[in-house]
Design a protein that fits this description.
Elements: H1 39-47, H2 52-61, E1 67-69, E2 72-74, H3 80-101
Antiparallel strand pairs: 1-2
Helix pairs in contact: 2-3
The structure holds iron/sulfur cluster.
Iron/sulfur cluster is lined by residues 23-25, 31, 45-46, 49, 51-52, 55, 69-70.
């Protein structure tokens, strides 16, 4: 398995979470809401977000739950299989996301 991280591939950032300042979701509470009411709109926002690869890496590394990240809603921690499936999917899709941005 190949994992492209800020420290192992892709863009280099001076500070660990510097990429977050470029996120299109900054200060948008809908991304941390448990409601799926706005998911279509959030998905569209993520599609145009330039730091989606970093967001995917963060989601995998932090094993996020109960948030909307990189175009997908992550369920609460009780849904272990669903979460694992999303982490695996992100690992598979990450090389393409980096390539699309021109990193590799
Ligand atoms: S891809 Fe990640 S960082 Fe970008 S808008 Fe979506 S949730 Fe935010």
């Amino acid at each position: 398995m190949t994992f492209f991280g800020p420290y192992g591939g892709g863009k280099m950032w001076l500070k660990q979470n510097e990429w977050m300042s470029y996120a299109h979701c900054a200060d948008d509470d809908r991304f941390t809401s448990e409601s799926a009411e706005h998911d279509e709109e959030l998905e569209s926002i993520c599609k145009g977000c330039h730091v989606k690869p970093e967001c995917m890496q963060w989601a995998i590394a932090d094993e996020v739950s109960s948030v909307f990240a990189a175009g997908h809603r992550f369920p609460d921690p009780s849904h272990k299989r669903g979460l694992q499936s999303l982490y695996d999917r992100f690992r598979d899709e990450l090389p393409n996301a980096l390539e699309q941005r021109g990193d590799v």
